C-alpha cells in the first residue's frame, strides 16, 4: 500500500509544535520532524500504525534527542531533556497557530517565510520547494536554514500575526505550480488548516478567494499554455463544487460583519463565478466591491482592476476616466488601456498600446497574449482600409 | 559535451533579413512563431540537449559601484544605442558544429509572411571547469 503523503503532511505542524512545546529548539526540532517523515514513508509502506501522529511524535523526539546528544557530546555538555517520548501530548490549536506565526515572522523576507512555511507547516521537502520555485536545492536549503536561525533568535518574543501568515499563503497560492507540487493546492490546504485554528473572518475570506480562483483555473489557460481571458473562458469547465464551497465560506464570513480586503476580493471573485455567461456578470456590484476594497487596500493594482470593472459597468469612457488616475508605471496598465480604447472604438491607439503591453509584459504567456491582441486588431484595421 | 549560450538580442545585433516587427504580424503569423519557439524548446529537451531557456524584459538598468557610502550609480533605461539582450538558450551539445546547426534552426523561426526571420543569434561557448586529465 502507498502512504497518503498529504494526510501525512497534515500531521507535521502538530508534531513539530509538540516538540517545540517540550522545549526543543525550533531548528533542530524541524529537522527531526523532516527525518521522521522520511522514516514514516519507508516504514508505513508495509504497515500504517494505528496512531500515526503518536508514531511521528515518538520517532521525531528520538531523532531530536540523538541530534542534541551528539551535539552535546561534541561540545562536552550535559543535556537535560525528558527521554520518554511525549506520546500522550495532544497538540492544541494554539500550538499550530503559533507555528504558523513563527514561519511567517515579520523579520523574515517574504521568500524566506514562504520557504519555511512550506517546509515546517506544509511538510514539503527542501527539494520539492526548490523545484516549485525553480531554484537550486542548495540555494533553497540555505534559505530555509537561515530562516530557521532568524526564527530561533527572535521568534519567541515577537511571534508575528495572522496578517503576515495570510500574506505568505496568498503569495504561495499566487505562484501557481511547477515541479511535482501544486502550490495552489498546497496553499488551499494550509489555509484550511489556518481557518480551523483561528477566529478571523479574513482568514475565511482568503480561503474563499483561493477556492473561487482555483475553481476557474483549468479554463484560464489553453492546452499550449496560452492565456484565456475571463470573457472567453469555457464556463462549463468551472468547478461548481468548489465555487459553491467558496461562496458558502464567504457568506458565513461576511455574516460576521468584520469586512476586510480578502473578503472584498473574494466577493468580487464570487460575482464572476456566479455568472453563468459573461453577459450576466453583475459589473455594478463588482464596482461597488472594488470601492469597498479601496477602503482597505488603496493600491494601483486595485485601481487598475476597478477601471476595467467601471468600463464594463458604465462604458469605456468612464473606464478610461477611472484609469487616468492610475499610476502610469504599474504592470498591465498598457493592457487595460488598450482594452478600454478598443472598446471605445479607437483601434489605432489600441494597437499601439497592445504592442506596448507586449513589450512590458511581466511574463511570456502575457507577452504572447498581448502580441496576439495587437495582431488581431492590426488585421481588423487592414481589412477596414 | 560542451555548453553554449545562444543569445537573442532586442537590439545590438545586425538587422535580420525579415525585419518587420512582431506587432505588425497577422494573428496566424504570431501563432506560427509562438508554436515554432515552443516546439524548438521541446525538441531540444527530447534530444537531451536543453539546459535552460529564459526571456528577459526589455526594461533594465546599468548599475555600478559609486564609492564608499554612496548608493550605486545607475544609468538607463537603456539609451537606444545600447545592446539589449532579449533572452537566451543554454544547450549542452557534443560539438561546436552542433551548436551552430541548432542556432541556425532557431534563427529560421517564422516571422512576417510566415518566412524565416533570419535573425542573427550570438553563439558563445562556456568556459568550462578544468578537466581531470591534464596531460
Plain-language structure description:
The complex is a heterodimer of chains A (385) and B (135). Helix content of chain A is 68%, strand content 1%. Chain A is mainly alpha-helical. Chain A has a two-stranded antiparallel ribbon with strand order 1-2. Chain A is elongated and about 85 Å long. The model of chain A has no long low-confidence stretch (mean pLDDT 91). Chain B has one domain (2-125): Dimeric alpha+beta barrel (Alpha-Beta Plaits), CATH 3.30.70. Chain B has 135 residues and is α+β, with helices and mostly antiparallel strands. Chain B is built from 2 helices and 6 strands; from the N terminus they run E-H-E-E-E-E-H-E. The two termini of chain B are 19 Å apart. In chain B, the strands form 2 sheets. Chain B has a 4-stranded antiparallel beta sheet, with helices on one face. Chain B has a two-stranded antiparallel ribbon with strand order 3-4. Chain B has helices at residues 27-46, 96-107, and strands spanning 2-11, 50-55, 62-64, 73-75, 84-93, 122-125. The A-B interface holds A 224-225, 351, 354-355, 358-362, 364, 367-368, 371-372, 374-376, 378-379 and B 22-27, 29-31, 34-35, 38, 55, 57-59.
Concise overview:
By secondary structure, chain A is mostly helical. Helix content of chain A is 68%, strand content 1%. In chain B, the strands form 2 sheets. Chain B has a 4-stranded antiparallel β-sheet, covered by helices on one side. A two-stranded antiparallel sheet of chain B has the order 3-4.
Keywords:
A: 385 residues; mainly alpha; two-stranded antiparallel sheet; B: alpha+beta; 24% helix; flat
Query: Major sheet of chain B: order of its strands?
Result: 2-5-1-6
Question: Average pLDDT value of chain A?
Answer: 91
- Strand fraction band of chain A? under 5%
Largest sheet of chain A at a glance? 2 strands, antiparallel
Structural shape of chain A: elongated
What order do the SSEs of chain A take from the amino end to the carboxyl end, as H and E?
Answer: HHHHHHHHHEEHHHHHHHHHHH
**DSSP strand (E) fraction of chain B?**
25-35%
* Residue-averaged pLDDT of chain B: 90
Could you state the oligomeric state of the chains shown? heterodimer
Amino acid at each position: 500500500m502507498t502512504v497518503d503523503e498529504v494526510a501525512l503532511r497534515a500531521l507535521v505542524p502538530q508534531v513539530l509544535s509538540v516538540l517545540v512545546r517540550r522545549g526543543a529548539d525550533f531548528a533542530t526540532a524541524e529537522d527531526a520532524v523532516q527525518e521522521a517523515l522520511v522514516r514514516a514513508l519507508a516504514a508505513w509502506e508495509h504497515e500504517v500504525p494505528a496512531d500515526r501522529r503518536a508514531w511521528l511524535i515518538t520517532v521525531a523526539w528520538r531523532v531530536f534527542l540523538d541530534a542534541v546528544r551528539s551535539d552535546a557530546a561534541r561540545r562536552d555538555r550535559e543535556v537535560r531533556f525528558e527521554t520518554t517520548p511525549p506520546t500522550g501530548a495532544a497538540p492544541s490549536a494554539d500550538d499550530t497557530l503559533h507555528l504558523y506565526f513563527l514561519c511567517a515572522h515579520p523579520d523574515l523576507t517574504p521568500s524566506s517565510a514562504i520557504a519555511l512555511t512550506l517546509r515546517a507547516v506544509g511538510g514539503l521537502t527542501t527539494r520539492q520547494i526548490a523545484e516549485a520555485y525553480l531554484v537550486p536545492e542548495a540555494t533553497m536549503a540555505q534559505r530555509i536554514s537561515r530562516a530557521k536561525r532568524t526564527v530561533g533568535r527572535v521568534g519567541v518574543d515577537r511571534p508575528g500575526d495572522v496578517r503576515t501568515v495570510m500574506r505568505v499563503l496568498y503569495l504561495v497560492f499566487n505562484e501557481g505550480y511547477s515541479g511535482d507540487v501544486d502550490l495552489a493546492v498546497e496553499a488551499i490546504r494550509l489555509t484550511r488548516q489556518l481557518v480551523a485554528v483561528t477566529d478571523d473572518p479574513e482568514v475565511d475570506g482568503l480561503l474563499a478567494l483561493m477556492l473561487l480562483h482555483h475553481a476557474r483555473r483549468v479554463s484560464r489557460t489553453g492546452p499550449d499554455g496560452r492565456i484565456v481571458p475571463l470573457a472567453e473562458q469555457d464556463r462549463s469547465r468551472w468547478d461548481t463544487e468548489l465555487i459553491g464551497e467558496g461562496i458558502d465560506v464567504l457568506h458565513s464570513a461576511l455574516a460576521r460583519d468584520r469586512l476586510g480586503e480578502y473578503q472584498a476580493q473574494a466577493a468580487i471573485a464570487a460575482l464572476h463565478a456566479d455568472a453563468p455567461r459573461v453577459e450576466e456578470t453583475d459589473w455594478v456590484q463588482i464596482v461597488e466591491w472594488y470601492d469597498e476594497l479601496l477602503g482597505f487596500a488603496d493600491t494601483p493594482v486595485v485601481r487598475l482592476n476597478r477601471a476595467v470593472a467601471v468600463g464594463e459597468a458604465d462604458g469605456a469612457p468612464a473606464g478610461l476616466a477611472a484609469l487616468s488616475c492610475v499610476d502610469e508605471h504599474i504592470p498591465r496598465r498598457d493592457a487595460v488601456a488598450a482594452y478600454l480604447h478598443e472598446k471605445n472604438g479607437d483601434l489605432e491607439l489600441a494597437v499601439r498600446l497592445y504592442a506596448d503591453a507586449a513589450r512590458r509584459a511581466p511574463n511570456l504567456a502575457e507577452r504572447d497574449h498581448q502580441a496576439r491582441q495587437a495582431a488581431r486588431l492590426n488585421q481588423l484595421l487592414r481589412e477596414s482600409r | 559535451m560542451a555548453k553554449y549560450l545562444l543569445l537573442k538580442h532586442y537590439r545590438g545585433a545586425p538587422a535580420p533579413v525579415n525585419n518587420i516587427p512582431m506587432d505588425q504580424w497577422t494573428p496566424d503569423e504570431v501563432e506560427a512563431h509562438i508554436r515554432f519557439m515552443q516546439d524548438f524548446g521541446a525538441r531540444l529537451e527530447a534530444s537531451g540537449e536543453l539546459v535552460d531557456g529564459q526571456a528577459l524584459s526589455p526594461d533594465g538598468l546599468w548599475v555600478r559601484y559609486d564609492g564608499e557610502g554612496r548608493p550605486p550609480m545607475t544609468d538607463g533605461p537603456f539609451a537606444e544605442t545600447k545592446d539589449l539582450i532579449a533572452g537566451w538558450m543554454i544547450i549542452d551539445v557534443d560539438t561546436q558544429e552542433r551548436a551552430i546547426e541548432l542556432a541556425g534552426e532557431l534563427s529560421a523561426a517564422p516571422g512576417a509572411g510566415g518566412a524565416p526571420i533570419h535573425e542573427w543569434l550570438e553563439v558563445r561557448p562556456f568556459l568550462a571547469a578544468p578537466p581531470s586529465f591534464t596531460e
